[in-house]
Amino acid sequence: MMKTLLEIKNLKTHFFTHEGVVKAVDGVSLKVDRGKTLGIVGESGSGKSVTALSILRLIPQPPGKIIGGEIYFEGQDLLKLDNKEIRKIRGKKISMIFQEPMTSLDPVFTIGHEIIETIQLHQGLNKKEAREKALEILKIVGIPDVEKRIDSYPHELSGGMRQRVMIAMALSCHPTLLIADEPTTALDVTIQAQIIKLINDLKKRFHTSVILITHDLGVIAEMCDYVAVMYAGQVVEYAEVFTLFEKSLHPYTQGLSKSIPRLNKEVEKLQVIPGMVPNLLNLPPGCPFHPRCSYNFEKCRSENPELIEIEDSHLVKCHLFTEKR
Amino acid sequence: MEKLVEVKNLKKWFLIGKSPLGKKELVKAVDGVSFYIEKKEILGLVGESGCGKTTCGKAILRIINPTAGEIFFNGQDISHLSRKEMLKFRKRMMIIYQDPFGSLDPRMSIGTTIAEPMEVHKIGSKKEQEERVIQIMEKVGLFPDQINRFPHEFSGGQRQRIGIARALATNPEFIVADECVSALDVSIQAQIINLLQNLQKEFGLTLLFVAHDLSVIKHICDRIAVMYLGKIVETAPKNDLFNHPKHPYTQALLSAIPIPDPKMRGKREILMGDVPSPINPPSGCRFHTRCPLVKQICKEEEPSLKSSNNIHYVACHLVN
Q: Residue A3 in 3-state DSSP?
C-alpha cells in the first residue's frame, strides 16, 4: 500500500464575486500519509476551510471554482471524477466534521435516523442491521445510554454530545480520511479536551488519516503529526509537528507562535505581527506576507517565493531560504 | 490597597417561564457572588459558557439590574440607585463588548460613535469632544483621518479598537472587558492585549477582564476569580492560582487547556460529563456531579468561599 493517502498539487480555488476574484486558495500543495494527522493552521481567511471543501468538491459553484491543480486520493485524481463518482467517496472514504455541531445536524430528524441513513446508503445494509451498527458506533464515541439516545433529536443534546454524534456519523462507514474543520472551536475547554482525546483514540483504533483544521496552535500540538501553516491562500510552511514548534523557519510561523500567551511561559509583552491579514481581493505583489514581515527585502516585494524543501519533510515558502541555496 | 469595586452576594436570576404546575422556572445565572477589585487592579473572571461571568460583569455596571446583593463603587452602594442617580456613575464605568461586529451601530460614523458617551454625559463642547475623539483614536492606534468612516470599512481588530476608544472617551476609572479578544485572530488578539495593557498603565484603569481563555487571563490579570454555574469557586492572585490551584474544577480547567508544545501532549486529566443546566443546578456543591474527588458531604451541603490566608479563597469541602 502506498504511504501517501492524499496529495494535493498546486490547488487553486477562486471565487468570482462582483467585487473581483477572491483567490481563497492559490497554489496549495500538501500531502497526508496513511494513519497520520495533518494539521492546517492559519487565521481567518487564510484558505484552510476552502482547501478542505475543495478535496470533497463541496465548493459552492458559482461563485467558487477550482481552476487548477490535482488532488490525488489513493492514486486517483478527485478533480477528474464525475458527480456520481465523487458522491461515492464523500461520506464513505472521506468524511467531514464541521465546527458547528448545532447547525450541521438536521433538527427535524433523530440522530439515529441520520446515522442509519448514512450507513444504509454506503454499506447497503437493511434498516435493522444499520441500526445495530449505529448503536455500536454511538457507544464507541462515548454517548451514554445509547438505546435511548439514538432516538433523541439534536436539540436534546449538549454541544459536546452533538459533536460526538457528528464524529459517530463521520466514522460510521470507516473512512480512510476524516476531515475535521475546527471540531472543538465552539466547545468549552473541558469538553474540548474530551473531544480531542476521542478523535485521537478513534484515529488509532480505525487507522484513519485525519486533516485537522484549526487556528489554535495548542490543538495542533495535541493532535497532529504534520502541520501546514497557511497564509493568504498559500502554504507558507510544512513540517513535522516537533520541527514546527522547535525550529520553525517562516517569519509568519515564528510570529504566530510568539504572539500567543502561554500558560507555561511568562512574558512581559506579547510579540505582535504588525498590521493585518491582507484583503484577498487585493493581495500585495510579491510575497503576500511581506508588508508585515520584519525581514522583508527587495525581492520579497516583487516576487512570490516558491515552497521549497529545506530538509526532509520541512518545506518553507520564503526568500530568506531560497537565497541561501 | 483601596477597593474600587466590591460586590456582596450578587444574584441575577432570569425568569424563563412556568412549569405545567405553575411553578416559576428560573435560570440562576449569578447566584450569590462576592468579590472586590482594588484600584488599578485587573481582575480576571473566568469560566465556561453559561457560568454567569458576562451576566456578572453587566450586573456590576447595572446594565442589567441585579436580583439581589450589593454593589459598591468607590465605597458607595450603587445597587439601588435610580436611573437618574446612576447617570453620574455611568461615565466612570464602561464596558467593552466581545463582538466587534454587533456592538457598533452600522449607521454611525466612528467619530460619532466614540463621541456619543461624551454627548450623553454632556462633557465638553462639540469642539472639545472632537479634539478628545482624535486624541483617543491616536491612543488606540486608529488614524484621525478615519473619523468619518463607518464600521463596515474596518476589520475586526480595528473595530475592537473603536470599541475601546468609545469606552475610554469619558475617562472612566473602571472598565468591564467582556471577552474582548475572543473573536479576534491570534495575531490581532496579541495587538489588542498589548493595547489594553498599555492603556491600563497609562490611565491607571481598574479592569474586570471577563474571558474563557486562561492563557489570555494569565497574561493580563493580577488576580483571578473562577466561576462555575453561577458561583465563584476560587479566587487568588495569578501566580497562586496557576501554580497551586486548589479547587478540583480549577485544576481540571487548567489541565484541559491544550499547550502549544507537542512534548506536553496527552499529559492531562480529563473532566468527564457536561456542565449541568443552571435551571436546575445540582444540590450541595454544584461541581459534585463532575468532581473526581466527590464525598457524601459535597452532595448535601454547599461549600462557602473560605481562606486560610485572606488571599487565596476556595469553596470546596475537601480543601477547607
A: coil
